[in-house]
Amino acid sequence: MSGGNKDALPLIEIKNCTMEFPGVKALDNVNFTLMPGECHALVGENGAGKSTLSKCITGENRMTEGELYVKGEQIRIPTYSVRESQSKGIAIVHQEFTLMSDMNGVENIFVGRYEKKHGFIDWKALDRRAQELMDFLQCEVNLHVAVKNLRTAERQIIQLAKALLENPEIIIFDELTAVLQEKDIQNIFRIIGILKEKGIGIIYISHRLDEVFACCDSYTVLCDGKYINSGSVAEIDNGKLVKMIIGRELANVYPPVNEELGETILEVKNLTAPKAFRDVNLYVREGEVIGLAGLLGAGKTELVQAIFGNHKVVSGEILVKGKPVHTKKPYQAIRLGMGLVPDERRTLGLNMKFDIKDNTTLPSMKLFRKLGIFQNHEGEARAAYDINEKMNLNYYSLWQNVKKLSGGNQQKIVIAKWMLRDTEIFLLDEPTRGIDIGAKFEIYNLIHELTKQKKAVILVSPEMEELIGLCNRIYIMYEGAVMDEVEGERKTQEVIINSLLGVNTE
Amino acid sequence: MNDYKTKSKKYSGGIKALLSDWMILFLFIALFALCCLNSNFRTTTNIMNVLRQASFVAIIAMGEFFVILIGEMDMSISSIIGMVSIFFAGFVVKMGMPIWLAFLLVVAMSAAVGVVNGCLVVYGKMPSFIATLVIMNMLKGINYIYSDGLPISGLSDSFGKMALGKVGIIPVAVILMTAVAAVLYIFTAHTATGRSFFAVGGNKEASKLSGLNVTFVAILAFVMSGVLSAVGALGLTSKTQSGNVTLGDNLLFDVMTICVLGGTSLTGGRGRVVGIVIGALFLQVISNIMVLLGINTYWQWVVKGIILVVVVLIDSYSKKD
């Protein structure tokens, strides 16, 4: 273990960092130190403040209070910027793609930083430099095809190469492995080893604790924006780390799972869509919550979209209350009592140009009529008001645009619009993505309320604990197939993770 | 429930919101007042003339309005106008059809063109700009093939009443336009189908996932554009009492200008029927005063261009905040 030279100057030192956004304290008195040649895990739940802290380091955010030292030199916070952090040798590699999908690898690495000869781009020199970077990382990636044709893991290597171009001394890995498969994750670990040998310090952000134990030297835990603890990975075990991260007993977080189940309301038989999922069988009963677990690209989103009639299916059947149905368009699925809360709230869930009332009543407009054809605006407004009050929405006017509401409030509207119709099957695709902890609990309770009213819920979530806490049964998908179905005692994180990664537990 | 009252109260935005909401109306009033300084402008005859001339273009612009509302564009209207004019005259004068039958036929033809436009965009996934540009040129070709480019005159005087007739001092054209605008206002503001145009233009995917029939709405928008263009074109044809293939050639620009002046967002999802009416009057008043001041046609094009640029600039600045 190369835990970093203890006498050396820290690459990054943060003292008493506080970061306030209007209305929220995202970071509260956080300390953080990164040594050369060290891989430092930054762990915590969603919304714990990991990204906020990394943004404070890269200059994307300016901390409200506190001190930041880079290589021993104090940074003037009020003028700190992304450009300055880059010139100081700080780089970040994101999980999402920051590449131009139609350009090839070489061009993506050098875009905006072309080497020129006589005023023209010197492609030969660029090819040579790119190959050197690949050799350094000991990776084989085809740099001469459009990156959209490459695998996820290969594209991330290119992002990494792009970051390395400026010879950074500090690299932040922002949930890079969340979308990768096991062997590609091993490759990332290998690369981290190479970088550490060069004395580069790495801040490693990940949700997967096994990775922390596999490749990191030290850790810092954040919880609800507060600094909890930091230390050496060698001196801690999984259990202690989990307790620090969650900061409370798991049992208190989730309402009880409803055990009074009715008839099967939705059944899916051998449903297949090319390149998305195949031979999927599942069912859900009245009052039941079923979970869909799986890595990115496992086909969960496509599956719920297909059930909702928004993804093409080549074979298989969908049955609602025992009757085969054809849902080729969402409006057909809606008539059958389904409602979808899509994963992309801002682009798919809401109409950002509309106000709260119009967004809330969009799927149920036709239920508010007078004289047969005219809209009953008063009735609509009244219904929108009632449901949003019930949802505990924080707003001042029904005619307020939804754009400026917080993520949690926006999500409440997306759910509310299905509660206005008598929706019986709720398809929730990552309903708690990117919303704060308080709003999460409200959504958990709402799901519980729905099951009490005999509604069926299909829940997709990347967070294992959420699925374990809320679902009666969990289906685990791997590369488009349902690998396992767990309930009761087998509903544990370990079983699920193994199936997620395609490891056979039997 | 008091809380409901406060949270459902409209227009809490104050004077600033009122101003920006009705900017075009205030500008129009200012322009109109300014023009009234000219003694030739402020005569009843001239003002009725302005209203009459604005009417048919307003009807055509109301069709384009629906297409822009869903975030698309219909370039084909200039050829639809030519088609309606020449075929209508042909049907009546050359083939001796009754006016009502010729009317139904050309409206049906325009609706069919709308369906084709809509299908190319929805099912063919073509950008509407390209699809309707292609249709515009094809139709233009067909119009010329049918007529050899020559006007067809000889439409009866009674048909001419559509443009030139009056009820009291109010021109028939103005009554027609007002009726169309009233129906379309009720349609957009008070029916579910009408509201769907705004939803689809605001966010197509979200609308689809909320159960709207997005395909139907999109095709309907192009059909309405076709049909309303046909109605407007018949009015313009009635003015000269002859069919002419070039009737719509310079109208596309005016129609776009009217839509933008009327506060229709070019990215879709926002706009008002009454805005179209005001926009049409605005543009017509400017044309009229320029004629009265003896400014020639070519300069009028330049001035109209400047107006469009200025309005778009004001619009994009006011949205920035």
List keywords for this structure.
heterodimer; A: 506 residues; 24 strands; B: 321 residues; mainly alpha; two-stranded antiparallel ribbon
Please describe the topology of this protein.
The complex is a heterodimer of chains A (506) and B (321).
Chain A: E1 12-21, E2 24-34, E3 39-43, H1 50-58, E4 65-70, E5 73-74, H2 82-87, E6 90-93, H3 105-110, E7 116-117, E8 120-121, H4 123-137, H5 152-164, E9 170-174, H6 182-197, E10 201-205, H7 209-215, E11 218-223, E12 226-232, H8 238-246, H9 250-253, E13 264-273, E14 277-285, E15 289-293, H10 300-307, E16 315-320, E17 323-325, H11 330-335, E18 338-341, H12 345-349, H13 356-361, E19 369-370, E20 374-375, H14 377-390, H15 407-420, E21 425-429, H16 437-452, E22 456-460, H17 464-470, E23 473-478, E24 481-487, H18 493-500
Chain B: H1 2-7, H2 14-21, H3 23-35, H4 44-69, H5 77-94, H6 99-122, H7 128-147, E1 152-153, H8 157-164, E2 166-167, E3 170-171, H9 172-190, H10 192-202, H11 204-209, H12 214-240, E4 242-243, H13 251-261, H14 273-292, H15 297-320
Antiparallel strand pairs in B: 1-4, 2-3
Helix pairs in contact in B: 3-14, 4-9, 4-12, 4-13, 4-14, 5-6, 5-7, 5-12, 6-7, 6-12, 8-12, 9-10, 10-12, 13-14, 13-15
Structure notes:
The complex is a heterodimer of chains A (506) and B (321). With 506 residues, chain A is of the alpha/beta class. In chain A, strands 6-9-10-3-11-12 form a six-stranded mixed β-sheet, sandwiched between helices. The longest helix of chain A is centred in the middle third of the chain and has 16 residues, at 182-197. Chain A starts with 11 loop residues before the first strand and ends in a 6-residue tail after the last helix. The mean pLDDT of chain A is 86. In chain B, the strands form two sheets. Chain B has a two-stranded antiparallel sheet with strand order 1-4. In chain B, strands 2-3 form a two-stranded antiparallel ribbon. In chain B, helix 3 (23-35) runs parallel beside helix 14, helix 4 (44-69) runs parallel beside helix 9 (172-190) and helix 13 (251-261) packs parallel to helix 15 (297-320). The interface between A and B is medium-sized, with 38 and 31 residues.
